[in-house]
Amino acid sequence: MNRRDHRRTIIALVWTLVSIGLLSGALTNSLVGWTLLSLNRERIQLLEQDRHLGQLAARLQRLGQEARGEIGLLLQGSEPGGRPSSVEAFAEAVGALHEMLGEGPEAALADLRLASGNLAGLRERASDWLLRYQPLAVDQQEKRTLGAVRLVLEELRAAAETLEGRQRLDEAIALRRWRQAPASDSPALAETFLREHSQRRPRVLKEIRGELGELSRLVETLAGEDQIDHLADLRDNQLKPSLERLERQLLWLAEEEERVPGLDSRRVAELRDLLFGRGHAIVQEYQTIRLGEGGLFRLSGDALLLRQEREGLQSEAQELFARVEKIHPLMADLAAERGAAITRQAEVRLRNGLLNLLMLSVLVMAGFLGLGWLISRGVETQVRIMGQLRRDKELILNSAGEGILGLDGAGRASFINPTGARLLGRA
Q1: What is the arithmetic mean of pLDDT over 195-224?
Q2: Are 70 and 123 in contact (CB under 8 A)?
Q3: Reported confidence tier of residue 344, pLDDT bands at 50, 70, 90
Q4: SS3 label, residue 290
Q5: Percent of the chain with pLDDT over 70
Q6: What CA–CA distance (Å, rounded) separates 204 from 167?
Q7: 259 pLDDT tier (thresholds 50, 70, 90)
Q8: pLDDT value for 170
Q9: How far is CA 409 from CA 262, 376, 415, in A?
């Protein structure tokens, strides 16, 4: 190998070393960029998920409040109209949350889905309660049945007062006749007056008026009763005996009087229908009344039962929404955990990137060391060859004065020392 070939070899080795350095730099930068890009992409995805999670949590909270207001409105006797049901939207939001979190907090998500199903059932029961409560609420608000009972009692009282006033007028006329009669007719008129005054009719009219007043008081008590267990006592021990006494008094009065306008025993039957409903029956062996259809008594009883049912539904709704509210702190903790997961993932990615860079650096260093060793070996070989050439040249120059330049048999010039040995030849 001549000198020019050695030079080319050294230049090739140097450029190879430079190329390896440039390539290692490019690989290092690419690895760092790829690591940072992957980390940023995952961070953006997690932040986007957190943003959707926050929006879904806010939507769940808003829909929960709307569902609470909707159920509260139903239990207050009003129908929420003009908008879709918030309960169905809440169930859809819970399903979306379950899909987003996947294998997240299973216990909390299962309880939330169960609460969503219970909320839908509670909404249906509240709607059914409203359908049963609205007729009662309208009747109570307009006081139609109570007004009809009051009207019958007022008519009976007016008729009794009219009859009593007419009797008092007859008594006053008879007393006036007795006072203005001559002495011969006075004993007979006095006897007639006393006989009529001692009759049972005035006492019965007074009892009728007393029973009508007592019935009016019992009716107002019945309409305002707020204890369900008091109704049975009010029906069997107060209303029933009072109506029976009034009916007996009206029957006796009808036997004594040829015609009593407004004081007919049939008005008692009408009063019973208004109080205990159409088709009611008196069970004598049990001394009670079996209720019929409608009536003030059933209206009051059903109203009390519906109010108790409403209280139960309200209590259940309160417990249910308390369970729903528990998901919001859980979602806040979940957001914090996801933030910590982002940090941990970033640390892991950076640590892996540093390890990859370290390995690449070790490989590049080993490549540089190996290439440097090859270059040093090549340079050492070149230096050794150059030294050998320099020594040969010095030997030739030292031998030039002692040798003779001549031609050998092949026609090449050579130095011949005095001993006859040929040292060097050239064509």
Answers
A1: 81
A2: yes
A3: confident
A4: strand
A5: 71
A6: 12
A7: low
A8: 72
A9: 177, 44, 13
Query: CA 14 to CA 112: how far, in whole Å?
Result: 70
* pLDDT value at 407 more than 60: no
DSSP bridge pairs for 425: 414
| Spatial distance between the Cα atoms of 53 and 97, rounded to a whole number of angstroms | 8
Give CA angle at 232 (226, 236), nearest 5°.
135
pLDDT (tens digit per residue) in 277-323: 888 888 877 778 888 888 888 888 888 888 889 889 888 888 888 87
**Do 163 and 157 contact (CB within 8 A), yes or no?**
no
Q: Which two tokens mark 147?
A: 């007004």
Residue 341 corresponds to which tokens in the numbers above?
Answer: 């997961």
Cβ-count burial 126-142 (b if 16+ within 10 Å, e if not): beebbeebeebbebbee
Inter-residue contact 243 to 268 (CB < 8 Å) = yes
Instruction: Return d(Cα 62, Cα 380) in angstroms, integer.
Output: 83
Q: What is the pLDDT of residue 303?
A: 87
pLDDT of 357 over the 70 cut: no
Residues 6+ apart with CB under 8 A from 107: none
Please report, for residues 132, 371, 373, the alpha-carbon distance to residue 19 in angstroms, rounded to integers and kept in the order given.
90, 12, 16
Q: Report CA-CA distances (Å) from 304 to 129, 159, 179, 413.
A: 13, 34, 61, 143
Sign of the CA dihedral running 66, 69, 74, 75: positive
Strand, helix or coil at 91? Answer: helix
The secondary structure of residue 402, as a DSSP letter, is T
Cα dihedral 42, 61, 83, 134 sign: positive
Identify the CA nearest to 53 among candidates 348, 339, 325, 323: 339
Q: Are the C-beta atoms of 168 and 213 separated by less than 8 Å?
A: no
- Per-residue pLDDT band at 214 (split at 50, 70, 90): very high
Q: What three-state secondary structure class fits 405? A: strand
- The dihedral through the CA atoms of 210, 214, 216, 217 has a sign that is positive
Contact criterion met (CB below 8 Å) for 56 and 334: no
Residue 205, C-beta contacts closer than 8 angstroms, at least 6 positions apart: 160, 163, 164, 167, 253
Q: Which two tokens stand for residue 284?
A: 């004598």
Average pLDDT, the chain: 76
| DSSP state letters, 167-194 | HHHHHHHHHHHHHHS-TTTHHHHHHHHH
